[in-house]
């Protein structure tokens, strides 16, 4: 779709566009109908593309029926031509992939040499030097075998002590046994591994080898044993780097896929916690895990997440950030609608609220969908401290968001357009400080903001040994030199420093980046229209945030559209008051606490009612204990 088509689609009131948008609502008859249609489509199969094209040609042929042919607009003709070119390129791409894999059979051979030749063809041997083929024999040399693994992905100690040694040294298989019996005994008795599977498909064997497993081929059997031997080097669990806290867990995700899922399961020990596996990529396969709580998360949300991931047609997904751009709503928007986090405790807290977590390959960041605007200003530390302190911290972040977004533009609007709003003494001080400055205020502010961005980028890119010194050099030496040289005013240095500190208080890095970009837009509005431009920008921003969605959930919910919800949205309410989950996610279970969370406290509940409710709740357990 072209740029102007996107713009016209935004400003067009079209019911079909609204129907295409995913909406996370309560389960209705349409959901049941969609499930029945999907099941029927899977059972009956889809009609071939050629048959559909032939039917369309027959319907569009004017010679068959004497009907009036409506002229097609030029824009639709261009779009049809573009779609034809895209389909043609896709067919050529599929044809190329089929030609490359045409020499690879679907099933394994019984002959060991044929399997060896196929392995060499798949992995481009002997040019490929990190794919190892180890030939050996078992049962006193009567059975020929070979094992295949990738050096660097597999643990050689596991291969030597748990695969080669049991088969070559400890095996005792009767020579008169059939090939199938030998294969069965090797798999069930001689391989002491917790994960051993068999496969007769070359695709499964290839994917297992590329994932770090070892494939064992036995002569006379058209199957291969795929043994779990993963053991590549990776970073151990360490402290979080982008979401550090003072109070709370200090561990973070690493570049190990299974270690990341295990960190979440270690915190959320529930049999209802489901992890579904998927694979994305044609050239390089990337494992993707979808984690949610069965019976709590809305099934419609889970189906939508899986639908978007399955629809990705790309050669390789390198990181979770790339996958997030493929599946998020309106990726051209400047504000993020998917959250990336490296903290297992935060993922667990989102899961119990009804969200879905997405693990991508060896990425140390996990995607959380859907996400709300208010979550961008929350930290995991808020839940670990008392509610007055947590509420104060959140209010500080909200004020910091306003300062980081609007303080430089306020400075421009006050000094250029509305000096009468400044007290006289302060105005005289500002005028005296700018007496030697030869540049206009707008140029001053833009110069300081760009310098701040330069310092920020330099502090990230340079080696970590001298990284902390960049902030000192940039903030003290350059700022002091610029003031003494008369390039900028001292008050502007203070304003920009406060803006930088305010932007650093935003916990989500991607959201903080969006605020930095929006700050330049507000600078331009303030330079042209003053406070009227700033007010116009704020109104447009709020209207825009009120209209966008994250996986069918309004971005500003439950404030707009307003509905009484959890006490942990804007402010950090008391733990005992957080009885319900956010209604916007449409969880299957909206209750997360009992009515009397502190039955022993007479200041919170009526002690008699709470005691009766507690006794009523524990009565069945007592009766069961008496019966036993």
Secondary structure layout plus pairing:
Layout lengths: L2 H8 L4 H6 L8 H16 L4 H12 L13 H27 L11 H11 L8 E8 L4 E8 L5 H13 L10 H12 L5 E4 L2 H9 L3 E5 L5 E4 L29 H11 L5 E8 L5 E8 L5 H12 L9 H8 L11 E3 L2 H8 L4 E5 L5 E4 L17 H30 L7 H10 L7 H21 L5 H18 L5 H15 L4 H21 L1 H17 L1 E2 L2 E2 L52 H21 L1
Antiparallel strand pairs: 1-2, 2-4, 3-5, 4-5, 6-7, 7-9, 8-10, 9-10, 11-12
As a whole number of angstroms, the C-alpha radius of gyration is 32 Å
**What is the average per-residue confidence, as pLDDT, rounded to a whole number?**
82
Main sheet makeup: 5 strands, antiparallel
Strands of the widest sheet, in order across it, are 1-2-4-5-3
Concise structural overview:
The chain is an alpha+beta fold. It is 49% helix and 10% strand.
Describe this structure in words.
The protein is of the alpha+beta class and 628 residues long. Among the domains are: 112-227, no CATH class; 257-371, no CATH class; 387-554, no CATH class; 593-623, no CATH class. The chain has 21 helices and twelve strands. The strands form three sheets. A five-stranded antiparallel β-sheet has the order 1-2-4-5-3, with helices on both faces. A five-stranded antiparallel β-sheet has the order 6-7-9-10-8, with helices on both faces. Strands 11-12 form a two-stranded antiparallel sheet. A hairpin with a 4-residue loop joins strand 1 (131-138) and strand 2. The chain starts with a helix and ends with a helix. Belongs to the GerABKA family. Residues 21-102, 593-628 are annotated as: Disordered. This is Spore germination protein.
